[in-house]
Write a structure and sequence with these properties.
567 residues, alpha/beta, Four Helix Bundle (Hemerythrin (Met), subunit A), 4 domains, 5-stranded mixed sheet
Length: 567
């Protein structure tokens, strides 16, 4: 940036400034100094974080010089000065000339440096210092715009398969029970349907032998209640009866019974029916067990997938932590510095009020108001950054939101850049943003879409950094992010890098889960897979890649503008 403090920019004679209230001039002079001090504070921290020690001395000199000029202005324009005549104005300009020019010289040396982290703050410092220098030379009035461009048991024998015999006739129960016990079964009995249901609900049974005709609750009704209970319906029921009526058999089978046996029982037939019934139950139990295992495996797989997604997200957040810290540090520094300056102004305001100087008090109140506006502005900026980080870390929920796509893309690119810078201090890259203002706001899930942009940008910076390590000094790492309005229904986002590109042999695999071209341990292989899912399934858009091996890789995202277009 070339700024000449001696350039003839709207020369104004000292008499033009003469006649102004000293408080007004004091306010106008302190405004650019407040900015210079704030910018210098941030750049000093950035230089320390970026490990660029040689830039610290001039930055500290700027900081000290600006503070000294503030004190000097207080001496040259004390609250006791009521009128600013020509002589007093000349005295102010002469008193400021040497320190203002020295400040301008330091600012110019900083603005001329190539480190990316210095801009745009170094340029802002130079502009403010230039105006101060021009004023001290009597060539222009001070006019600095401070706005920033930001179941009952009867019998029981333990063994093997456990059966329940339900019959209202005690002798029937006894006979059948003995037969079954001789065959090696453990048997429990119940005298009616209600007792049988209570037993079934209190302990496990493998098979139920249920009499059809019983008082209180007959076999048909009991069978119906068993089939209606989700916890009992899978227990095989063999209906037993002294009746061989065809209709009863049909009714029982249709009601869900496994088999129908008539009394008296042939022991061989009874054994065969029970064996067949038990084998079918065993098959069903095995099927149920396998189903439960599959369901558990599916749940575990989903859990592992969620963990992997969480790890991928946390890895992404971890790599971006430094970038986020860098981004949030600037507005917090503004808040701190403007708060400190406001505290100083409060002391001056008290003095002016005590002295009855209404003009001075009014000017100080105006300065305080401006500082508070700045504190609010940069506090909100910090809040936006924190909310963006939280959106990136949580699951999507709720409806789409209208979001500024250009702002979302810009923030993600910056975070990705600083994330890689925190891991490799030797890395740097040119960032080209080509944002179509016509894109405007788009109905999206901002937190999910930010993951897509962060992933694409982080991959792009990784690609150019890897190429830088193997290229000659003539290689200039460049990442380009652009947006374009494609009519009323669609928008397009592109992220391009001039890295090594993607080999044709792997281009068709890059969106597959767990596929990665990075070295083992450098990534989860889920980034592009998740990004495609977010773009295609959630937003009903498209995500594709264009590349030329050795030259570039470009990822193109198309999104519908409105949720109605996406349905």
């Amino acid at each position: 940036m070339n700024v000449n403090p001696d350039a003839a920019v709207s020369p104004i004679s000292p008499v033009t400034e003469a006649g102004r209230a000293p408080a007004a001039l004091r306010h106008d002079l302190r405004t650019p100094l407040n900015q210079i001090i704030g910018y210098a504070d941030m750049l000093i921290e950035d230089a320390t974080a970026e490990n660029v020690p040689d830039v610290l001395p001039p930055l500290k000199e700027i900081h000290v010089s600006a503070y000294n000029i503030v004190k000097l202005i207080q001496e040259l324009l004390p609250p006791s000065l009521q009128i600013l005549d020509a002589e007093a104005l000349l005295n102010v300009q002469e008193g400021l000339r040497e320190p203002a020019m020295r400040l301008f010289s330091h600012a110019k040396s900083i603005a001329g440096r190539a480190e990316a982290f210095l801009q745009p703050f170094a340029g802002h410092i130079l502009t403010a210092a230039s105006e101060l220098a021009q004023f001290s030379a009597g060539r222009t009035a001070i006019s600095i715009d401070s706005a920033e461009s930001s179941a009952v048991r009867v019998r029981d024998q333990p063994a093997g398969v456990k059966l329940l015999v339900v019959d209202n006739n005690g002798r029937n129960r006894e006979v059948l029970s003995n037969q079954l016990e001789r065959q090696g079964y453990a048997v429990c009995t119940a005298s009616n349907g209600r007792e049988g249901l209570d037993l079934l609900r209190s302990e496990p049974f493998d098979i139920v032998l249920l009499d059809v005709r019983m008082p209180e609750l007959d076999g048909f009704a009991t069978l119906g209640l068993i089939q209606a209970d989700p916890l009992l319906r899978d227990i095989p029921v063999i209906m037993i009866s002294a009746s061989d009526e065809y209709q009863s058999v049909i009714r029982c089978i249709e009601g869900g019974a496994e088999d129908y046996l008539t009394k008296p029982f042939d022991p061989v037939l009874l054994r065969a029916r029970l064996k067949a019934c038990f084998e079918k139950k065993a098959l069903r139990d095995e099927q149920r067990r396998r189903t439960e295992e599959l369901e558990k495996a599916y749940r575990d797989l989903r859990g592992m997938q969620d963990q992997l997604l969480t790890q991928q997200k946390l890895a992404s957040l971890g790599s971006l932590a430094a970038g986020i810290a860098h981004e949030i540090k600037n507005p917090l520094n503004f808040v701190t510095n403007f708060a400190a300056l406001s505290n100083e102004l409060l002391g001056e305001l008290k003095s002016a009020i005590d002295a009855g100087d209404k003009a001075e008090a009014a000017a100080l109140l105006e300065s305080l108001g401006g500082n508070l506006d700045k504190i609010e502005e940069h506090g909100k900026r910090a809040d936006r950054i924190v909310r963006g980080m939280l959106m990136h870390s949580r699951k999507r929920g709720g409806d789409r939101e209208s979001a500024d796509l250009n702002a979302l893309l810009t923030e993600c690119v910056q975070l990705a850049f600083h994330g890689l810078r925190s891991q490799d201090m030797t890395f740097n890259a040119a960032i080209a943003m080509h944002l179509d203002p016509a894109v405007g706001n788009v109905e999206v899930f901002p937190q999910d879409l930010s993951r897509v942009f962060l992933n694409l940008a982080a991959n792009a910076f990784y690609a150019v950094n890897e190429k830088r390590k193997t290229s000659d000094q003539g290689f200039a790492p460049t990442v380009t992010a652009s947006t374009r309005s494609a009519g009323d229904e669609e928008v397009e986002v592109r992220v391009r890098d001039n890295g090594m590109g993607i080999p044709p042999a792997v281009l068709g695999k890059i969106f597959e889960p767990f596929y990665s071209t990075k070295p083992s341990g450098s990534g989860t292989g889920l980034g592009l897979s998740i990004s495609r899912e977010i773009v295609v399934q959630e937003h009903h858009g498209t995500l594709r890649a264009e590349t030329q091996e050795g030259e570039f890789a470009e990822f193109i995202v198309t999104l519908p503008r409105h949720s109605s277009s996406a349905s």
